[in-house]
Design goal:
The protein is built from six helices and three strands. By secondary structure, it is mainly α. It folds into two domains: 83 residues, Double Stranded RNA Binding Domain, CATH 3.30.160; 42 residues. Strands 1-2-3 form a three-stranded antiparallel sheet, covered by helices on one side.
Length: 140
């Protein structure tokens, strides 16, 4: 943390992370991140480990479920703020749009197994979320 960040934190009461971003960007990032669906799992070494369905590679931990959730939302807020500041489009929260359309694809058994393994490795609930995320990321 820089000296300026520490000074900003003491003067404004902001934490060092949110002091690093424009207030409007930080607020918008928080609104987006708070809509993400969290996955919190018991982790023996740290208590709980959290991530989101929308951004499974952004993780945080905490000794309690509540602390883990708060830390995970803050980590997501930072990631979204960086995306907003660099002109990228953050993932849309899963809960903001009702999915009514369906797309079907056929794969071999081996392909299905590979997709399941990749989805699990990256923290997705299942193949559908994994494929949707990968396809939409590529389509952006």
């Amino acid at each position: 943390m820089s000296v300026n960040s520490r000074k900003n934190s003491k003067k404004t009461g902001k934490r060092a992370l949110d002091a690093s971003f424009d207030a409007g960007v930080w607020k918008r990032a928080g609104e987006i991140a708070s809509g993400y669906r969290l996955i919190i799992q018991k982790e023996p070494d740290v208590g709980y480990l959290g991530r989101s369905v929308e951004m499974p590679m952004v993780m945080a931990d905490g000794k309690t479920v509540a602390k883990c959730a708060a830390e995970t939302i803050e980590a997501l807020t930072v990631a979204v703020a960086v995306m907003l500041e660099t002109g990228q489009k953050p993932p849309v929260p899963n809960t903001s749009e009702k999915r009514t359309a369906q797309v079907n694809i056929r794969v071999t058994e081996e392909e299905k197994l590979r997709l399941e393994e990749a989805a699990q490795r990256q923290g997705f609930r299942g193949i559908s979320d994994y494929i949707r995320s990968a396809a939409l990321k590529e389509a952006s």
